[in-house]
Amino acid sequence: MKRLNPFILIAALAPLTTVAHAEDTRQPASPFDAGISATHHATGRIVKVDGIAGMLTLAHGPVTTLNWPPMTMAFGVQNTRLLDTLSEGQTIDFEFAYDGSIYTIAEAQPH
């Protein structure tokens, strides 16, 4: 039985260890992933206003600060009185942030 030369084995595995330690240069998916708190801006069309849950469902455009493509998602609102001024189908510009558990709209203006 032939024995494997340990120097050949080390030389063969060396490139794999280099790849394992490569720096990840992708941006995090959310401020929570990065350990930071940031405010983000987007424009979206209101799909649903849920006053009971204090939520707005928006079909929004891309959010460049998060590398998000356009999508439809629900947001909490910082001040539920904002929901009284908005209606389904309306387009708004809005500022939002991640509070550790949900993305929350701080400000919204009709477009």
Report on the structure:
This protein has a single domain, classed as Copper binding periplasmic protein CusF (OB fold (Dihydrolipoamide Acetyltransferase, E2P), Beta Barrel). It is elongated, with a radius of gyration of 23 Å. With 111 residues, the protein is an alpha+beta fold. It contains 2 helices and 5 strands; from the N terminus they run H-H-E-E-E-E-E.
Descriptive labels:
single chain, 111 residues, alpha+beta, OB fold (Dihydrolipoamide Acetyltransferase, E2P), five-stranded mixed beta barrel, 2 helices, 17% helix, 37% strand, elongated
CATH domain class: Mainly Beta
List the helices and strands in order. HHEEEEE
* DSSP strand tally: 5
Major sheet strand order: 1-2-3-5-4
Please bin the fraction of helical residues.
Answer: 10-25%
Number of helical elements: 2
Radius of gyration: 23 Å
What class do helices, strands and sheet pairing give? alpha+beta
Task: Describe this structure in a few short sentences.
This protein is α+β, with helices and mostly antiparallel strands and 111 residues long.
